Amino acid sequence: MKFTINSGDFHRRLATVAKAQASKSSLTILENVLLDMSGNTITLTASDSSISLISSMEVANAEGGGRICLPTATMTSALKELANQPITLDINNETYEINITYNGGKFQLMGLAAEDFPIIPTYDNATTIKAGIIANGISKVVSCVANDELRPIMNGICMDFTPDGLVFVASDGHKLARYQYTDVHDDKLQRYVLPTKTSQILSLIADKQDDDVMVTITDRNAQFVTNDYRLISVLQEGTYPKYDSVIPQNNPFTARVNRAAMVSALRRILVFASESTSLISLHINAAQMVIAAQNIEFGQSSEEIVNCDSNCNDFKIGFKGTFLLELLRIMASEDIILNLASPQQAVVITPPEQPENERQLLLLMPMMLGDN
Description:
By secondary structure, the chain is α+β, with helices and mostly antiparallel strands. It has helices spanning 7-17, 72-80, 131-141, 196-207, 259-269, 321-330; strands spanning 2-6, 32-38, 41-47, 51-58, 60-63, 66-71, 86-91, 97-102, 105-110, 127-130, 156-162, 165-171, 175-181, 191-195, 212-217, 221-225, 229-234, 253-258, 279-284, 288-295, 300-310, 315-320, 335-340, 347-350, 358-364.
């Protein structure tokens, strides 16, 4: 088989599907991308046996057809160094020799037979979701995903179709992020958990789309189809915890603060916090919040005052500062509201105003202060 394609387009598509591959694999075939040519269309498939990503694109001057596995690392490295230009791939279906010619040069490499490449399933009966909803929902919660060998169900993003809309949730037991779209519904009311790698790939391909994503869920697998890509992934096994049960519903104290000012102060304060705990304290009064940290081992400390609007009177609470900083960076609003109950109970962080049909909520468990 033989075809001509733009080197830049080919490299971008190869590099994207290759994200489904494992960094190291015990199976040589999974270090390759399957190329399947039919007519003037080539289909590229990469897999780590649990996650597969497929993409098709049109080519010029097509001759013949067939299937071959391309060595991913060599192909992407070589194409990356080429200027954007037409290249011609001439592939021998019997010897698996690949000759690539371009303006002023050529290179040659060997492929592998396609027979050993995993068979990728196809699913029907899809639910339609806007690509932007998927990309945004994942981006708002992914930083709270756990990495817990004992509770693998937490090592992913929960997509939950509830009567109140589609909810994206992630939690590592210390912090939680929930993002809800109240205008997205599905009669099946499904709940499933996408592995972190799947979520990251899905966010990447959905972020490049303006149209819908076709979503199909089975007992064990999920399929997401966009205009340019098809992603198939196993789901995390198990039952995701009832996340709403850990969210306090009636925190009587609130503090409204400028998000950028608090982020800047936290970054400075954390320089002086204990490296092992990153413990910081918030001392909140009606018009100001004192953020402080100390490292007793090195005899250093720091504190900074940030203006706020609060109904608190001498309220003090401790947090892991790095976690609080991560959550604040998720928020996009100018101000944030800290909803508090006691120094021992979780703080709920919300924006003052929510976008239409969207609801964002973050939760962070406190840490004990030495003076509590």
